[in-house]
Design goal:
The complex is a heterodimer of chains A (173) and B (598). Chain A is an alpha+beta fold and 173 residues long. Chain A contains four helices and five strands, in the order αββαββαβα. The chains are: A alpha+beta (173), B alpha/beta (598).
């Protein structure tokens, strides 16, 4: 994967955020699969391949709402924020989309002085990235997968304010 | 010359009458090309038009040609849009079509649309422009809300059919059901199973009471057993029922009245819904199973194991069965022994993520093929498949017209031999001479395409994913499948060589889709240059998004005439998604910024 050779600034021991969706520039293999290579080692592939298996999204969404009704009697996950003295917990079931979750997190961490960074009103130079840890322990960027898939796979949330997450944004500008 | 002058003695009405026996669209298209006189007679007497790709012709032109049109069928987005491979706002707008019809075809009675974007405004226009409007069928559409449905209910004086299948409908409340006229309605078929929100139950009951012609009624999940029982007591002549939520207690009045209501429905042939079905409610269904021809349990994960077996063993006349794979090979074995008349089977995956125990395997499919020799249509999701199973299945069921097999793990070989599944799928095309639709999966080399090109002469639609080795694979298909109409390919190593192997072929087809393959911009440009009668469109979301970022979030519409990205030099870039289709309508005028017409 090209990610391994890319130079990044970051604190020692900082974790790379894995983005499930490959950008076309990075595609070098003529095989052109859109799934992460390391998934091929696993006994069963994660459903990260867009549009696979070929089930109508209508049916998929219905299926999630049926399955998750049982699974999710209150899905509380820990939320950590870099530099904050303690963690918080949120019930993901209270939100039905990413926007609501982001707003809730902003409110939650607004009480810390670092919370000012979250306002992004142009005065401050730092921004934040929200990532989450999924069932396999991988750190994933929030927002790539449909909400229902995120709900069933999210184990922990992490608000990252160091330069690592932001470097990607700056590079792409 | 003699024949020609003989035809001139026939009055137009006679020729028109002769044409009325031609029900097959291609036949009518053919007679219209014989001579000007026949063209004119045909176009004025044409009552039904089918447009398989809404961009193949401009709406105005179609409407102007057939002013007497009564029934229009339209299809919009490419099939792979069902699997999120087509970005939102791609197109497929119904508005221009409805407007064109409103101007030129006042007698329109029926509109059927699939994968199109319909707005509430368009629905308003629809019901006001066509006084005789009778039937609206929307499949996999989006862009409208329950307000649009209210407009249809309110203004359509002679509405017979309102059929909503798997649409994304914005829920603006349950009031729409109240909008039907107060007097008796002419409703024959009402399907709102895909509505996610609440329904006004009293309105529903009253509506059913004043719809004496109702034959098909499909409810959504919000309708409880109590209401279902009341409704069924009102419609003992119902032939097609989609239940709401089938959750009831044993000693509840609802359950008891459901049983007695169902028993009265002697004409019931088709059942669907079964949301949250409790084993108890299934018991209520047993008495009517013996006459069922259609059963859809694909939204009922609770119906499995012994519950499923108990239900299905009564369904001896079943022709169509849709289930989840949670019924297992064991459940399929019972289907095979009970449903001897079965023609169509669909087995959907019940869990898209878990690496759990395999639910259906090749064993279930072999059992079905052994017990149900009349099977001609299959959609089967499974964890694994073997060549020998496929060979057996094709021997047992040589009548397949539709065969779609999806092995959940891409590129998975035959677990018994570790070989590709070329021979298994090859056996299907060799044996099933009438195969019109084919989807293949698992580990596959160019060899399977050799077989498809050589034997699948009746094939019209082929779907390929994660298969093949070289350009030769795709070339076999393009060269061999004479009747191919739709070809859709994803994640295969086919490149420009394959794309350009037989460019005139695409003029004989409706469309070609290629995504995550090995084609380059240069290849696509070459195709566009050689074939001006095709629209060669590439979908490139990433670059369009980059453009947006560069301009600080102000979306810049990249016009097709001034396309910086297409012409900025690097033609070797791989193309993410390609959609090619024949058209007489020229390039799209409504393409979003991420769709580039070459």
């Amino acid at each position: 994967m090209d990610n391994d050779t890319e130079l990044r600034l970051g604190l020692p021991g900082s974790v790379e955020v894995k983005k499930p969706r490959e950008t076309p520039q990075k595609r070098s293999s003529p095989d052109c699969i859109s799934v992460e290579d390391d998934n091929l080692d696993r006994p069963s592939p994660k459903a990260q391949i867009v549009g696979w298996p070929p089930v109508r999204s209508y049916m998929k969404n219905n299926f999630y709402s049926m399955k998750n009704k049982a699974d999710m009697a209150g899905k509380y996950v820990k939320v950590s924020m870099d530099g904050a003295p303690y963690l918080r917990k949120v019930d993901l079931k209270n939100y039905k989309e990413y926007k609501e979750l982001r707003e809730a997190l902003e409110n939650l961490f607004g009480c810390f002085s670092l919370g000012e960074i979250l306002r992004m009103d142009g005065k401050y130079t730092m921004e934040y990235t929200i990532a989450y840890e999924d069932k396999d322990g991988d750190l994933m960027l929030l927002g790539d997968v449909p909400w229902e898939i995120f709900l069933s796979s999210c184990k922990k949330l992490r608000i990252m304010t160091d330069a690592l997450g932001n470097k990607d944004r700056e590079d792409s500008k | 010359m003699k024949v020609q002058s003989a035809m001139f003695y026939f009055p137009e009405e006679v020729i028109e009458h002769i044409f009325s026996f031609l029900t097959h669209h291609p036949d009518r298209n053919t007679v219209s090309t014989v001579c000007k006189a026949w063209y004119k007679i045909e176009r004025l007497s044409r009552r039904e038009v089918f447009v398989g790709n809404c961009y193949a012709i401009r709406p105005d032109r179609a409407a102007a040609r057939f002013p007497g049109l009564r029934s229009l069928t339209l299809k919009g987005k490419p099939h792979f849009a069902d699997f999120d491979l087509v970005p939102p706002d791609w197109g497929g707008l119904a508005g221009p079509w409805i407007e064109a019809m409103a101007r030129s075809c006042p007698n329109l009675e029926e509109l059927r649309m699939k994968r199109m974007v319909v707005s509430d405004e368009s629905l308003e226009l629809l019901v006001h422009a066509f006084p005789n409007f009778k039937a609206l069928v929307l499949v996999s559409c989006e862009g409208f809300s329950t307000d649009g449905l209210a407009a249809v209910a309110r203004s359509c004086k002679s509405l017979r059919e309102l059929d909503l299948q798997e649409n994304e409908i914005e829920d603006r409340g349950p009031r729409w059901l109240n909008s039907f006229p107060d007097m008796c309605t002419s409703l024959v078929s009402l399907n709102f199973a895909c509505l996610k929100g609440e329904v006004n139950l009293k309105s529903l009951e009253r509506l059913v009471c004043r719809s004496p012609n109702l034959k098909c009624l499909r409810l959504n999940r919000a309708v409880p057993v109590e209401t279902l029982a009341k409704i069924m007591n009102q419609c003992p002549n119902l032939e097609d029922l989609g239940t709401g939520s089938l959750l009831a207690d044993q000693f509840s009045e609802a359950y008891v009245s459901l049983i007695s209501a169902l028993q009265k429905c002697k004409k019931l042939r088709c059942l669907s819904g079964f949301w949250d079905a409790s084993p108890l409610c299934l018991l209520a269904v047993y008495p009517i199973c013996a006459n069922l021809t259609g059963l859809n349990l694909s939204y009922a994960p609770t119906v499995q194991g012994q519950d499923f077996i108990n239900l299905i063993q009564h369904c001896v006349k079943l022709l169509r069965l849709w289930v989840l794979d949670s019924v297992g090979d064991k459940g399929l074995a019972v289907v095979a022994s009970a449903c001897k008349e079965l023609q169509e089977l669909r087995v959907f995956p019940s869990d898209l993520f878990a690496a759990g125990p395999a639910t259906v395997t090749e064993e279930g499919l072999v059992a079905i093929s052994t017990g149900c020799p009349k099977l001609n249509s299959l959609l089967y999701f499974c964890h694994s498949m073997t060549n020998s199973a496929l060979i057996t299945v094709s021997k047992n069921c040589p009548n397949f017209t539709r065969f779609r097999l999806c092995i959940l793990e891409p590129r998975k070989p035959d677990p018994a031999t570790n070989e590709p599944l070329d021979e298994g799928f090859g056996a299907v095309v060799k044996t099933c001479k009438n195969l019109r639709r084919f989807s293949i999966s698992g580990l596959l080399t160019d060899q399977v395409f050799y077989y498809i090109g050589k034997y699948a002469k009746a094939l019209e639609m082929l779907s390929i994913a994660f298969a093949g080795d070289t350009d030769q694979g795709m070339t076999y298909v393009l060269n061999g499948c004479k009747n191919l109409r739709k070809l859709e390919i994803r994640d295969c190593p086919f490149g420009d060589g394959a794309l350009l192997a037989d460019v005139t072929k695409y003029e004989t087809m409706r469309s070609l889709w290629m995504s995550s393959c090995d084609i380059s911009l240069r290849g696509c440009k070459a195709l566009a240059t050689k074939m001006p009668s095709l629209n060669v469109e590439i979908i490139n979301e990433w670059e369009a998004e980059m453009e947006e970022n560069l301009n600080n979030g102000v979306a810049e519409v990249i016009s097709n005439n001034n396309n910086k990205h297409i012409n900025n030099g690097n033609d070797e870039r791989k193309v993410e998604k390609l959609y090619v289709y024949r058209t007489v309508g020229g390039p799209r005028t409504d393409a979003p910024d991420f769709v580039w017409t070459l």
